[in-house]
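Hi D.,

Good news: the full-assembly prediction came through. Inputs first.
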Amino acid sequence: MMEKEERYQAVKAILARYIQENRMRNTPERLAILEMFYLQEELLTAQEVYDIMKERFVVSRATVYNNLQLFYALGLVIRVEEDNQLKYKACFGEREFFRTVCTRCGRIQRFVAPNLALAFDGVKYKRFHMEQIVASVYGVCSSCQSKATRIRKKLEKEDELKALNKKKKS
Amino acid sequence: MMEKEERYQAVKAILARYIQENRMRNTPERLAILEMFYLQEELLTAQEVYDIMKERFVVSRATVYNNLQLFYALGLVIRVEEDNQLKYKACFGEREFFRTVCTRCGRIQRFVAPNLALAFDGVKYKRFHMEQIVASVYGVCSSCQSKATRIRKKLEKEDELKALNKKKKS
DNA sequence: ATACTTGCAAATCTTTTGCATCGTT
DNA sequence: AACGATGCAAAAGATTTGCAAGTAT
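Then the structure:
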C-alpha cells in the first residue's frame, strides 16, 4: 500500500501529463480540489466537495463539477451511487471498490475480495483498457431478513386464528 | 432463459407476497409500471418511466418514484448510474449486469462473463443475502486511447522542432 | 495575445414533500 | 371506516449553461 503523500504525487503526475497533452491549464483550483481528495478518504458528493473547498479557497460550484469530471475521466476518482446521489472518491492505489448494498434499508458495507479482483483480470475486454472496478452486490442484509421473517410469522399466526374463529362460527 | 411473460408472472408473485407481508395495497398504478418495465428491456431514468407511463395511464411523478423505490427494494429492478443519471432496469432472470465504461467519452458496453459471475458466488458475504450484481469496469476505450496516442505523437514532433530551432539560433 | 478556466447567477433537471382525495382492504 | 397510495403542485436539491472577467501559456 502506497503512502498518501506518495499516491498524491503519482496522481499529480498523471494529471500534469494529461494537462500537457491536451493543452489545458494548470490552475490552483484544480490542484486544491485534487489535494483535498487525496488527504481525506471519504466518499463525497459534488456539493460536499464544494462545501469543503469553500472554507479554504474561493471556488465556484461549476469549477468543482468541471474538475470532478476531469478527475473522473482520468481515473483519479471513482464515482459511486449512494443514497440516490453520485459520490466521488479518490481511488489511486486501490483499483477495486466492492460493496454490498441492502436494497431494503440502504445499508452499505465495503468488502475486500482478492479472488474477485483477480476474476476481473481474467475477463477478455474487447478493445478496452481497464483502470478501475466498482462492483455493487445488491441484496438483503441480515436484519432486514429477520424483520421479514418476523412479519411473516406474525401473519401466519393471525391466519391460524382467523381459521379457528371461522370453524367456531360454523 | 425465461420468457418475458413467464418472468413477469414470477415477478408479480414476488410483489404480491411482499405486499401481503407488509399490509400494503394492490394498486393498478403499481402493476402498470411493473408491467411496462418487463415488456421493454431498456435502462430508463425515473423521468423516462414517467413519460412513458403518462401516455397510457394517469400517474404522477411521485407514484413513479415510490414504486421504483419499492421495486428496487424487492430486487425486481436494478439501478445503474449512466451519464450522471440513475437508471432503472428490470432484472429478474438476469442476476448480473456487467459493463465497461470509458471515462473519457462515456461509451458503455455491456459484457457477459460467466466466470466472473461465479467469482461473486465465491465471496463470503457477512450476514448478507445476495440478489443482484452490478459491476462497472472503468477505463479507456480503444478510440480514446488512440486519440491520446495521436496527440502525444504530435506533441513529441513539436518538441523536436522546437529543440531544432533553438540549436539553429545558438 | 490567445483561449482555457473560473465565478457568478440563472436555467434546467431530478427528486422529495405536503396535503387533499381516492380506493383497497 | 381506516389508512395506504395517489395526484398535484410546490419545495428542495443537483447539475448544467451562458457570459464576463481573470490568468496560465
